Amino acid sequence: MEGGAGGETDAMPEADALEFTPTWIVAGVCSLIVLISLAAERCLHYIGKTLKRKNQKALFEALLKVKEELMLLGFISLLLTVSQGVIQKTCIPPSWTNYMLPCKKMDAHTVTAEVIALGGRRLLSESGPRSEHCQNKGKVPLLSPEALHQLHIFIFVLAITHVIFSAVTMFLGGEKIRQWKRWEDEIEKNAGNGSKKLTHVQQFEFIRERFNGVGKESMILSWMHSFAKQFYASVTKSDYTTMRLGFIMTHCRGNPKFDFHRYMVRALEADFKKVVGIRWYLWIFVVIFMLLNVNGLHTYFWISFIPLILLLAVGTKLEHVIAQLAHEVAEKHSAIEGDLVVNPSDEHFWCARPRVILYLIHFILFQNAFEIALFFWMLTTYGFNSCIMDHVPLIVPRLVIGVVIQLLCSYSTLPLYAIVTQMGTFFKKEIFDEHVQQGLVGWAQKAKRRTESTKDGAGGGTHGPSSGLEMLRRAAAAIQGSRAPPR
Fold it and tell me: Are 363 and 282 in contact (CB under 8 A)?
């Protein structure tokens, strides 16, 4: 009996192999996985067709970016699976595993109790021929099968969470921006009815709300007011009207009925495809944060403040750009004839580049998604009372900060970014319709080839470009790059 029992015990590991698994189970599991994968692929395909039918090219490109991220996840998954054997056969001295631990190592009795409590799940990492390969050498595997599996799941959860959070932020922010459409309609309805009378600059609502006087004390007051303004009425009707007129008078002077709201939404949709992706430097941040997750440092608690501080700094800066526009007008004029016109300039932004704001928002959204994904991954994998979850007084603030970041970025910072970054020196390529963009690029390329052939035929002589060619070149620069010089 004992021998029979021992024979049955020895046969148990073999029963888990594919060759000893019933074919109906293999076929059933494969069918389920294939059906779920095909359903997800068809769903993405249907969404893409819907966006193309509605002429939402920017959102369609963002969807393609999501597909690229899913493909990257698939490659990471394949790489982890293929390299699993190599990783487990890579042996290191046991003393190396005593440094930079997320949790303190427990004694044998505690480990045994925890394994029993978890239903023996952790015993899987200690069994098998690969772990015996290192044990025979008096060493331990570089990474256990269970740790590799958990890392695999975390990377997947992080990427999916980032995509979902970015989409939610864009949706909520877009809803806030769509509320400004009524202001655009009112302005177009009243176009041509503006008064040409002379008005004192302090009588303009935009100046009264944004100008805080001249001097060092007023500058400090302006920054404090900008910080507080992002939490309530971040963009008012007078802000929208003034910045819209400033953009049109700078870039579209010949078209006073230019649909600024439509252009702003299209530019934001184009930026979404950059925000939804995970760039290489974001993965570097993930690796650094995981490296610093050492017991006693409470790393994940402290890094949760990084996106919050950055978000508040970005919101304050965007509000201060509006204040600077008002400050310039109030300093130069005591009275204005007609409407108030501000002067857009890149000098108002950090590094004279409005694009820096987008990179910061991208990092903020990713870092916040990282915090939330990490929390739920740890909760489902280790449980709420695990040492890796840290202390409860540190967990609650992390969740509260995550929610605050998501709401503040959606309803304040993103709408601010959408309108304030139009106050740079240059306009974006979305100012042109899609067919106009394609036509201008084609014309510019043909003109460039003709110019090169003319130079070659003239023996390398130089001729100044015509004004028409110069116009095409400028338009092509706006389309092929992210921005173009104003005309």
Answer: yes
- In the three-class reduction of DSSP (H, G, I as helix; E, B as strand; rest coil), residue 330 is classed as helix
Please state the pTM of the whole predicted model.
Answer: 0.76
pLDDT at 215: 62
DSSP 343: -
Phi then psi dihedrals of residue 278, to 5 deg: -115, 105
Does the pLDDT of residue 317 top 90, yes or no? yes
| Separation between Cα atoms, residue 315 and residue 229, nearest integer Å | 9
Alpha helices in 344-486 (DSSP H): 355-382, 392-408, 414-420, 434-457, 467-480
Kindly report the backbone phi and psi dihedral angles of residue 272, in degrees, each rounded to the nearest multiple of 5, phi listed first. Answer: -60, -35
Whole-angstrom distance, CA of residue 243 vs CA of residue 239: 6
- C-alpha 302/C-alpha 306 separation (Å) is 8
Convert the pLDDT of each residue in 105-117 to its tens digit.
765 444 444 444 4
Asked if residues 141 and 91 have their Cβ atoms less than 8 Å apart, the reply is yes
Residue with the two structure tokens 């400028």: 474
In the numeric block, which tokens belong to residue 131? 């772990």
In our burial notation (b when 16+ CB lie closer than 10 A, e otherwise), range 68-93 reads ebbeebeebeeebeeebeebbeebee
Contact indicator for 106, 114 with CB cutoff of 8 Å: yes
Q: Are 266 and 60 in contact (CB under 8 A)?
A: no
Q: Residues near 180 by Cβ (< 8 Å), separated by ≥ 6? A: 235, 240, 261, 419
Residue 253 DSSP symbol: T
From CA 475, how far away is CA 484, in angstroms rounded? 7
Nearest to 157 by CA among 379, 476, 456: 379
Query: Residue 344 in contact with residue 425, Cβ under 8 Å?
Result: yes
